[in-house]
Design goal:
Helices cover 50% and strands 20% of the residues. The chain is of the alpha+beta class. The protein has 2 domains: 160 residues, no CATH class; 106 residues, no CATH class. The longest helix is centred in the last third of the chain and has 38 residues.
Length: 354
């Protein structure tokens, strides 16, 4: 019997660790939204000019009389990362005479945000390094028969790159710095303000005349769902503790307190309030969705109909685009988080029942 209990406890800890590990990966994309265009976008030069222009406008507004600190919270400028993707590029290792196909991604901005995953060795390429690249572990194994290949040279469509870093990934992918004149068809916006919402991204794109995007990936939606499952084992554990405490209280109530309707009513009211406080606390800590998903009124059913329609349309567009690495990463991490959450919650319940 003790062996079984210890086994269930170990399962709870392992599944809980899985839930937390993959859930935090999803939460990292909470302040981000990514748009994809087929034949439109912006160049790196345009992005730099736009960010500089917005920075100057914000400084000018902040310097006006009576504007210092007023309305600035939650309205920080977004960090914008752009990239383009070229499929099935010829990659070769001249030293070993090995050739293969790879997807090449030209990045302008933070390379870490483009291809999520663990950096196994080396570092990402800085903004001035046009000769460096970061390759996936799958491409490294294919070309070099090893993942310890930082400093090695490879050739993609006749241009040589030096490997600066290796990132975990099953697909054959190479990341390099885009030129400032390259058209970036994918744009990721990261808002660090407290009032982030995808409406801010849509407003930004409207001002730039880039409203006809093909798909939109909302990191805040995935992070909100992940938050619910991250908090589920905590909710189950707290409910089990309250349940056991309630049973003990009822046991002592029979011995100590007088048995009448008033006392019974007060005890039941205290139990209901405890459950309500627990749910409110759990909701306040773990359930965090972007402002776009918070209706003006609880009974605003039309809001949910419109929102579900928008989500289904965006989801269909995402399914039609096969090269969405972030989508696959977020979906995979969210599934692992859900598996760990539901598994640990079930084991918690079964352990308490024994």
């Amino acid at each position: 019997m003790k062996i079984l209990q210890y086994g269930m406890l170990a399962g709870i800890l392992i599944l809980g660790a899985v839930c937390v590990t993959f859930g935090t990966r999803v939460l990292a994309f909470g302040p981000a939204a990514t748009v994809h265009y087929k034949d439109r976008g912006m160049t790196g030069e345009q992005l730099d000019e736009l960010c500089e222009q917005q920075r100057q406008e914000k400084e000018e507004k902040a310097s006006l009389p009576g504007q210092q600190g007023a309305g600035q919270e939650g309205k920080e400028l977004p960090d914008i990362t752009g990239w383009y993707r070229q499929e099935e590029q010829n990659a070769e290792n001249p030293a070993l005479n090995i050739e293969t196909q790879t997807d090449r991604i030209g990045v302008w901005g933070n390379m870490r945000d483009v291809l999520p995953g663990e950096l196994l060795a080396g570092s990402y390429v800085n903004s001035l390094d046009e000769e460096g690249c970061v390759i996936s572990s799958a491409l490294s194994e294919k070309l070099f028969r090893s993942t310890d290949t930082t400093g090695c040279t490879l050739r993609v469509d006749g241009k040589e790159y030096v490997v600066r870093g290796i990132i975990a990934g099953s697909g054959q992918i190479l990341l390099n710095r885009a030129k400032k004149t390259d058209l970036l068809c994918n744009l990721e916006f990261r808002y660090q303000g407290k009032e982030y919402s995808t409406s801010a991204v849509r407003d930004f794109l409207t001002r730039q005349g880039l409203t006809n995007y093909d798909s939109l990936l909302e990191g805040g939606l995935y992070a909100g769902i992940a938050g619910i499952f991250l908090g589920l084992p905590v909710l189950v554990l707290a409910a089990l503790v309250i349940r056991r405490g309630w049973k003990r209280f009822r046991h002592y109530q029979v011995r100590i307190l007088p048995r009448n309707q008033t006392v019974s009513f007060l005890c039941q009211l205290a139990g209901i309030l405890s459950i309500g406080c627990l749910l409110a606390l759990w909701f306040w800590i773990f359930v965090r969705f972007p402002a776009d998903y918070v209706p003006a009124g609880v009974s605003d059913f039309e809001f949910w109909i419109v929102k579900f329609h928008e989500l289904s349309v965006d989801r269909q567009k995402l399914l039609n685009y096969q090269g969405w690495y972030q989508e696959a990463y977020l979906l995979g991490s969210l599934k692992q988080c859900m598996f760990g959450s539901l598994g640990s919650s079930l084991l918690l319940y079964l352990t308490a029942r024994r």
